[in-house]
Amino acid sequence: MLATQLVENGLSLKKALRLVGLAKSSYFYQSKRASLDKAWAKRLKELALKNPAYGYRRLWALLRREGFKVGLKRVYTLYRKLGLALSFRKKRGYRKSQVPEDTFPLEPARRPLKRWSIDFKEKRLSDGSKVRILQVLDEAVRYLLGGWWDRRISGEEAAEYFDHLCRTYGPPNEIRRDDGPEFRSGAFQEVRQKWRIKERVIPPGSPYWNGFIESFHGKRGGRRNFV
């Protein structure tokens, strides 16, 4: 501003304002929009971290509900600038010849609580750290029997939780799992043998063999906030 430069060069503020033809109130005026922008931008980041599965449209609706008069395009611009958008890896397609013929269709159990799918899922928290989630799904009705999360889950802890579910619902006839070290541990196998449960172990690198719980991860996992 010219008046500011004149003052810095030694001219009094009154004379500088008279020379440039500027009112004193205009010289000291501070826009309220800048502070308002900082307020809704801060709130946008808080809402995005609290609800990582929400897109910019839903976050914009939450801001409007809280009284922030901000346009959708401005929210989208800042949403992208702050890197709040979720990044999804493009699903790799499989040619028919790449997938063994006996994997499809996956035949679910005909009666509830007869076959369970069990698997681990990783979730990133708002502070950037990761947790592991042990989930057990009933294949017949696609019902999540249990989900337990912690930063680290050992084979003994997985076995203890699996034993708890067997005592709660009654043991299944069979489980479907991958070849993870927690499921191969002596503690987990001891619990399985105690309840006389059969198991289907999917080959390494073949999540489509455990398609029921993998589908559950894709459809429901992003909506759950474990923060």
Automatic annotation (TrEMBL):
PROSITE patterns: INTEGRASE. InterPro entries: HTH-like_dom, Integrase_cat-core, RNaseH-like_sf, RNaseH_sf. Signal peptide: none annotated. It comes from the Bacteria. One of its GO terms (biological process) is DNA integration. One of its GO terms (molecular function) is nucleic acid binding. SUPFAM superfamilies: Ribonuclease H-like. This is Transposase.
